[in-house]
Design goal:
Elements lengths: L2 H4 L9 H8 L11 H5 L2 E2 L10 E3 H5 L4 H14 L2 E5 L5 H15 L3 H4 L11 E3 L4 E3 L3 E3 L4 E8 L16 H27 L3 H8 L4 E8 L11 E4 L5 E6 L6 E5 L2 E4 L7 E5 L1 H6 L9 E3 L7 E8 L6 E2 L16 E2 H14 L10
Parallel strand pairs: 1-12, 2-3
Antiparallel strand pairs: 3-13, 4-7, 5-6, 7-8, 8-15, 9-14, 10-13, 10-15, 11-12, 11-14, 16-17
Helix pairs in contact: 5-8, 6-8, 8-9
């Protein structure tokens, strides 16, 4: 990632103090205490009446069922911005290899993990999430450790920051990245059909664009009411695909002003619309706020792929979706978009409204 962009993002290293706090959370260092943020908003009860939509790829691929399932996919993207994808067809051995290597990496001693630590103004490597500034309490850290890497194009990756321990991590990530790229293309084709645009229009916007990976570990905390795993945010790129390495819940999605907990479905990916896809669809598909809360007993580990997109170097509505009604969002050069995006991320504020016409 370009140096000028790196300066817009601040990622803190995981220190010995942080590792000690993660290991024994009897006392929470002040820089992690976010009690007001954890308590902000109503959390809907987990009674199954407000489950995240489940989309079946096997039905999407079945000529007899595809139209109905594609409509269900479109509805999920319009009303939730999220869905869980089952029967996705991704090689199960590749998934398990990615899960195993992710879990093994986070189980390593801190000194081993710090061999790929984030450096200087860098973006990639091992460290905390982004540092966010609280209006009331200054800079705060999330209760999490993460590795962020650029996976595609291959030449853009910072290979010295790709873990070599576990020894099979790089191979696992390479194989997984290719599988997710293929799955993304399939999903985009069905999204294009639902939106009523040529498949090529949407596929070309994503083709050859940057793909990045983040693996996250949210350690258990004895005082989950005091810390945030990941503060409320929207995803800034095009499409996000999340793999649960374990079955610990924690992801919550904001809908109608309330937080809806996501119960992981075995074998499913959690897929969500990012800000760029929101703009590209002229607001038809929604990028929605979400957060991660921490469990008192169980850690939570995820592997997340973020797929970037742009239209001829611009973040803009697809031309086919602005005919008649006009564009609801401005066309912005991609770097300028990212500059505003990272500034908003550091402040913990949303920014899609600022791009409205």
């Amino acid at each position: 990632m370009e140096a000028s962009r790196n300066k817009l993002v601040n990622r803190n290293e995981i220190t010995d103090e942080a590792a000690s706090a993660f290991a024994d959370s009897a006392q929470i260092p002040d820089k992690y205490v976010r009690t007001d943020e954890v308590a902000d908003g109503v959390v809907v009860g987990e009674d199954g009446t407000n489950e995240l939509p489940i989309i079946d790829m096997a039905k999407l691929l079945d000529p007899k069922m595809s139209k109905m399932e594609a409509a269900k996919l479109g509805s999920a993207c319009r009303h939730w911005g999220f869905f869980q994808l089952i029967n996705h067809g991704v090689n199960e051995a590749v998934i398990q290899h990615m899960k195993d290597n992710t879990a093994q990496f986070f189980a390593l001693p801190l000194d081993s993990k710090k061999t790929v630590a984030v450096r200087g103004d860098g973006f990639e490597g091992y460290g905390h999430h982004y540092t966010r500034t609280s209006a009331t309490s200054g800079d705060k850290l999330d209760w999490a450790e993460s590795v962020i890497l650029i996976t595609q194009p291959v030449q853009d990756g910072n290979m010295p920051l790709w873990p070599t321990n576990p020894p099979t991590f790089r191979q696992a990530l390479d194989l997984y990245s290719v599988e997710i790229t293929n799955l993304t293309r399939q999903l985009l084709g069905f999204m294009a059909d639902d939106l009523g645009v040529e498949q090529a229009a949407l596929l070309d916007a994503f083709a050859g664009k940057r793909q990045s990976m983040a693996i996250h570990h949210y350690p258990p905390c004895r005082h989950p009411e005091k810390v945030m795993g990941n503060t409320p945010h929207t995803d800034g790129l095009g499409l996000t695909l999340l793999l649960h390495v374990d079955d610990t819940p924690g992801l919550q999605i904001k809908k109608g002003g309330r937080w809806f907990p996501v119960r992981p479905v075995p074998g499913a990916f959690v897929v969500n619309v990012g800000d760029i896809l929101h703009i590209m669809t002229n607001g038809a598909y929604r990028s929605v706020e979400h957060r991660v809360v921490v469990d008192a007993v169980r850690g939570r580990t995820t592997a997340v792929i973020f797929q970037d997109a742009s239209v001829e170097g611009m973040v803009a509505p697809l031309p086919e979706l602005v005919k008649g009604g006009g564009a609801r969002y401005k066309s912005v050069e991609r770097f300028q978009y990212l500059k505003v995006r990272f500034s908003a991320l550091a402040k913990g504020s949303g920014f899609l409204e600022s791009f409205k016409v």
